Amino acid sequence: MTDLPSELLPATRRALLHRLAVAQAEGRTPSMVAGVLRDGRPVWSGARSMVDGHAPTPDVQYRIGSLTKTFVAVLVMRLRDEGLLDLADPLSRHLPGTPADDATVAQLLAHSSGLTAETPGPWWERTEGSLRPGLDDVLEADRPLKHPAGRVHHYSNPGYALLGALVAKLRGEPWGEVLRREVLAPLGMDRTTLLPEHPHAGGFAVHPWADVMLPEPLTDTGLMAPAGQLWSTIADLARWAAFLTAGDDKVLSADTVAEMRRPAVAPDDAEWTSGYGLGLQLRRDEGRLLYGHTGSMPGFTAGLWISETDGLAAYALSNATSGASAASLAAELIALTADLEPRLPEPWRPLAEVDAELLELTGPWYWGAAPAALRLRPGRVLELAPLTGRGRGRGSRFRPEADGTWTGVENYYAGETLRVVRHPDGTVSHLDVGSFVYTREPYGPAGAVPGGVDPEGWRTF
């Protein structure tokens, strides 16, 4: 959007800093850092600290907890796109012998495998990974399943330990090294690491009833690392947010990233305020649909949210176990920016070129007696939309294919084929959309409409 300024307005920047300062002060957090991305570009960052005259720079690492799961999910989707696995594959096809043999890859990604939420034994987040030397040690041996597979969303940290092991098995090297080479390096995220590298924040617990602090252990969680081990910075999270917004063909296509943010199981709540895709959390916040992920580990909280509609992303990091929520702050920063500087619509522009045959297809069409309109969009995209809210009309955009057909990209017709059916003389007879016939008049020629048309035609009774 070339007519937008590269930076936010001073009043917006002041409001964002104020919101960050309130979160750090009222949440009693040693430090907080945050940033905002607009249309793929960082436009604001801020920091607050308990130390007078000092604030962390965008290069300071914080532990990002379960935001790690988004990185693991991207690695798995790369394997899928390369044809090395199918999301419907049971885990046993590639990593046999675990208590989760029957869980599918998709169920593990979406936390719908039914697996237990946590590991047996001591709290894995505060203990060394050497206490869990094998995959059998990250799941309960007697009852690893808490729900029927595929039925409900039940968050499972051990499930992502299994996905990390799956990546390592299929790539033949540790998942962290695969992540560095295949994802972090191509995206320029050289400050995102498995273990902390200077400069990094220390993690603290803040006493609930007194203003005193306790250092938290900075553990290497071993096999559980894919569930929450990574450290990162707001500078790197800006790059990650840009990738999760639009994809990057060096890592994952935009279509695959969009697939990850679609709900994978039925929402838990009737109001649909939260959900989960393939490695990405979904959230409705004051009517705004967000996707991203939250994270927490002892001493740290993290959050990254993206609003596709607003063209905004926000990310926040803190170094306290509880108190101020970085995830809530990130969502609030999106809402604040969108309210103060709402997104401008793209200016209307005519098509750069037009195909006369496609222009001929535009206008009204009828599925039986239900009217619809076909419009020509940039890139030879066709858009079919019902003209009224009544009846059984369905709308979708259709992308062009090399064979002269179009494929639906959304709603009921997603994946379905639109064909232009012509008479022997080359003139258009009708549109075939997944076997539904659209004609130029209500219940058009008998030869086109399945089942024929009453020969007496339209009449009064």
From TrEMBL:
GO terms for molecular function: hydrolase activity. Residues 24-338 form the Beta-lactamase-related domain. The keyword Hydrolase applies. Keywords: Hydrolase. SUPFAM superfamilies: beta-lactamase/transpeptidase-like. It holds the Pfam family Beta-lactamase. It comes from the Bacteria. Residues 354-440 form the DUF7586 domain. PANTHER family: D-ALANYL-D-ALANINE CARBOXYPEPTIDASE, D-ALANYL-D-ALANINE-CARBOXYPEPTIDASE/ENDOPEPTIDASE AMPH. This is Class A beta-lactamase-related serine hydrolase. The lineage of its organism: Bacteria, Bacillati, Actinomycetota, Actinomycetes, Kitasatosporales.
